[in-house]
Amino acid sequence: MKKHPIHRPFLSRPHGEALPTVAIIGQPNVGKSTLFNKILGTKNTIVDDSPGVTRDRIYAECEYQGHLFQLVDTGGFDPSATEGMVGLIKQQSQVAVSQSDILIVVMDGRAGLTPLDQEIINFLRGTKKPIFYAINKIDTPKSETLLADFYKLGQDYLYPISAEHGMGVDELLEALLPLFPVQERDPHDVLFPKVAIVGRPNVGKSTLMNTMMGQERMVVSDTPGTTRDAVDSIITFEDRHYLFTDTAGLRRRGRVERGIEGYSTAKTIRALGRSDIAILLLDGIEGVTEQDTKIAGLILKQGRGCIILVNKWDLRKGEADAQMKYSQMLHRRFPFLQFVSILYGSALREKTIQQLFPVIDSVGREFSKRVSTGKLNQFLQKAIAANPLPLRKGSPVKSVFMTQVATNPPTFALFVGRSIEVTSSYLRFLENRIRETFGFEGTPIRILVRKK
Question: First-to-last CA distance in the chain?
């Protein structure tokens, strides 16, 4: 059966073509390296609460929405520094600014606009390069009030982000896209959907991977914690290629030992962060545990597409109402994952694999789906007519507007007047209506509220 491609390819550098360079700058300890790691999807740089951890420029090639670019992480920039280590860091930052095509200035939203931030901005006033102002540590709707201090800069648009949690990062990257040159794809480039297999220890993750590969590459044992590291494998199914990652089992935090196991847990979380889709493997005999619920919450927090596969179901063959009862338990324990497909099978059987791949393709299409602004606003007017937006007493009804600002996961911006109070329950109403109208099965949806 012909499969549809997932539009999030790994691309090679265009032959002989220089990549656009994006430099992240700012004063020490505002989250530059955290943002660098979040964009890159891995943890290459050392992130610590001590100022000045990143001393040299660090370069990495990145891909976003089919566009390749070079990302530069810099040390904390102090324009007034002249000597010592701080002076050397300043020199490295100046070189990064001069050699870059686009600049992202990161500032700490919790600290407010500081004199050093103002110095950096004054230093950059002479450059004609595009500058994007990212206000970090804006991780809740309530913290968006912290942006007020930064409007003193006189900029038309600020980008509130949480570099640690990834909130707002897609919106920032979407704003960069029009500045990147159009890059022609090599016809030999292959689309690789990225899939992470996650779950607690000993639920059958490596067994599932071995069945898909048809060989015993992974060490499979009844001893929990056999897989120490995240292992990548390219798997071909019906002439399509997939990048699968088998991960170490995630234990409860209190039971994670320091050293190798702690490192394995960190690798698992990073593998999940750089994947498009997570397969959450559950034990069909033991049922759903508290740790399963926490792992499911982590998938949602990371914004990954999700498929639930209940393993060892062959051992319950013939039990009356077993699947119905298990499904009811899943809905009760995972109320935040009602949009996720649930499969029942055995990691040892090829029949389960045959059922799994079409669902992976379907979730991948939904994860990268984009809805036109025209269709969204037709939908929005019908939704408001059915359930009006809450207004402050006596305030006139203002026009509202919605647009999709990102994919992977689908992210929407709802622009409203200042007199409109958008509650969490109303956002849930909108999310449910979006799913009823446009689908998005298997993928989380994010709705950002922005004042007009």
Answer: 47
What region, left, alpha or beta, does residue 393 occupy, with left being phi > 0 and alpha being psi -120 to 50 degrees? beta
Whole-structure pTM over 0.70, yes or no?
Answer: no
Nearest to 230 by CA among 255, 209, 252, 253: 209
Q: Which domains does the chain have, with CATH numbers?
A: 21-179 (3.40.50.300), 194-367 (3.40.50.300), 373-451 (3.30.300.20)
H-run or E-run covering 128: none
Q: Poorest-confidence range of 150-159, 163-172, 387-396? A: 387-396
**pLDDT at residue 93, as a whole number:** 63
Sign of CA dihedral 143, 409, 332, 297: negative
Please provide the average confidence, as pLDDT, over all residues in the chain: 78
| H-state helical runs in 318-446 | 322-333, 350-367, 373-386, 424-438
| d(C-alpha 186, C-alpha 13), whole Å | 9
Look up residue 132 and give its DSSP letter: E
